[in-house]
From TrEMBL:
<comment type="pathway">
    <text>Lipid metabolism; fatty acid beta-oxidation.</text>
</comment>
<dbReference type="GO" id="GO:0004165">
    <property type="term" value="F:delta(3)-delta(2)-enoyl-CoA isomerase activity"/>
</dbReference>
<keyword id="KW-0007">Acetylation</keyword>
<comment type="function">
    <text>Key enzyme of fatty acid beta-oxidation. Able to isomerize both 3-cis (3Z) and 3-trans (3E) double bonds into the 2-trans (2E) form in a range of enoyl-CoA species, with a preference for (3Z)-enoyl-CoAs over (3E)-enoyl-CoAs. The catalytic efficiency of this enzyme is not affected by the fatty acyl chain length.</text>
</comment>
<dbReference type="GO" id="GO:0005759">
    <property type="term" value="C:mitochondrial matrix"/>
</dbReference>
<keyword id="KW-0443">Lipid metabolism</keyword>
<dbReference type="InterPro" id="IPR018376">
    <property type="entry name" value="Enoyl-CoA_hyd/isom_CS"/>
</dbReference>
<dbReference type="InterPro" id="IPR001753">
    <property type="entry name" value="Enoyl-CoA_hydra/iso"/>
</dbReference>
<keyword id="KW-0413">Isomerase</keyword>
<dbReference type="InterPro" id="IPR029045">
    <property type="entry name" value="ClpP/crotonase-like_dom_sf"/>
</dbReference>
<protein>
    <recommendedName>
        <fullName>Enoyl-CoA delta isomerase 1, mitochondrial</fullName>
        <ecNumber>5.3.3.8</ecNumber>
    </recommendedName>
</protein>
<dbReference type="Pfam" id="PF00378">
    <property type="entry name" value="ECH_1"/>
</dbReference>
<keyword id="KW-0496">Mitochondrion</keyword>
<comment type="subunit">
    <text>Homotrimer.</text>
</comment>
<dbReference type="GO" id="GO:0006635">
    <property type="term" value="P:fatty acid beta-oxidation"/>
</dbReference>
<comment type="similarity">
    <text>Belongs to the enoyl-CoA hydratase/isomerase family.</text>
</comment>
<keyword id="KW-0276">Fatty acid metabolism</keyword>
């Protein structure tokens, strides 16, 4: 028999200033106290959520072709779908993965941070912050099934997870490569990396903008396991099954104890961080670097 559940979506989620939701993309949302949703398969235009065969587990698949860049829309949908899963107490774990062949996520959408106005940069950065805070502090067990390239913001997203399984394909790479674009990973990107691979390895990786192929990513501790490409999702699900054996309250309190101080670093100065981002990204020299990088990406094909 089909499993169904009632999911309450708090109205406050609809009122956040950055969440200029496009109703057409989020057919399941209604601006009233809540809405009934079948957990058979739900989600939105760019984020598909499917319950896995194991009870209490969902697979969240990003489908923002061609490269799953983290556009404002994708970020917004991600946060709303995560909140929906968190509010539905039947779910305890989520696998995050991609529908774009060979790409987990190309990171922040460069068209959101290049050639726009300061108000847009501020709105976009707030959405990036929100994505990080929500994932990093989620009470759910999150496992990243990294089935492709995973640079910059894509890497950040995977680093918020509790465990990372990556496809063992030397064509793929993962890392915070911001300096290669002439930009700087902000302190909370850096903190997330330091918490994962340690200070010295982060210092080197961040300065050089290193993108690690899978074997090196495993060595440095950026991912936890490599598997053949066709086993990424199934392995992520079996990892979750192991984590599910731990009592939720103990695991959640432990996760919070480990991560809250890092998240507080941003929570205490969110507005200042937005201002820093806007003034940095609005500089002519930074905009030029980004334009050149985008042009190179676009020329690659031709
Ligand atoms: C002390 C002061 C400190 C102040 C600090 C304050 C603030 C901090 C400031 C800034 C922080 C910003 C942090 C930024 C984080 C990011 O995530 S930036 C994004 C970085 N991403 C990348 O570098 C990845 C770029 N993409 C690729 O390498 C490749 O596209 C690929 C993902 C490996 C896939 O390769 P392939 O399959 O060959 O696909 P194509 O390269 O042909 O790409 C297809 C089309 O997609 C476009 N595209 C690719 N990536 C992006 C992207 N990130 N955003 C937007 N668009 C992207 C690409 O141009 C192609 O488009 P066309 O089809 O040619 O139009």
């Amino acid at each position: 028999m089909a499993l169904t559940a009632v999911v309450r979506i708090p109205t406050r989620a609809l009122l956040r200033p950055w969440a200029r939701l496009r109703d057409s993309a989020l057919g399941w949302m209604e601006p009233v106290g809540g809405v009934e949703v079948s957990t058979q398969r739900f989600g939105s235009q760019r984020v598909l959520v499917e319950p896995a065969s194991a009870a209490g587990v969902a697979v969240m698949t990003f489908k923002n072709p061609p490269v799953n860049s983290l556009s404002l829309e994708l970020l917004t949908e991600l946060v709303i779908n995560l909140e929906k899963l968190e509010n539905d107490k039947t779910f305890r774990g989520v696998v995050l993965t991609s529908d774009c062949p060979g790409i987990f996520s190309a990171g922040l959408d460069l068209t959101e941070i290049c050639g726009r106005n300061p108000a847009h940069y501020a709105e976009y950065w707030k959405a990036v912050q929100e994505m990080w805070l929500r994932l990093y502090l989620s009470n759910l067990m999150l496992v990243a099934a990294i089935n492709g390239a995973c640079p910059a913001g894509g890497c950040l997203m995977s680093l918020t997870c509790d465990y990372r399984v990556m496809a063992d394909n030397p064509k793929y790479a993962i890392g915070l490569n911001e300096t290669l674009l002439g930009i700087v990973a902000p302190f909370w990107f850096k903190d997330t990396l330091v918490n994962t691979i340690g200070h010295r390895a982060s210092e080197r990786a961040l300065q050089l903008g290193l993108l690690f192929p899978p074997t090196e990513a495993l060595q440095v501790g950026m991912v936890d396991r490599l598997v053949p490409e066709d086993q990424v999702q199934s392995t992520a699900l079996s990892v979750l099954a192991q984590w599910m054996a731990i009592p939720d309250h103990a695991r959640q309190l432990t996760k919070n104890m480990m991560r809250k101080p890092t998240a507080d670093g941003l929570l205490k100065k969110r507005d200042e961080d937005i201002q820093n981002f806007v003034s940095f990204i609005s500089r002519d020299s930074i905009q030029k670097s980004l334009q050149m990088y985008l042009a190179k990406l676009r020329q690659k094909k031709g």
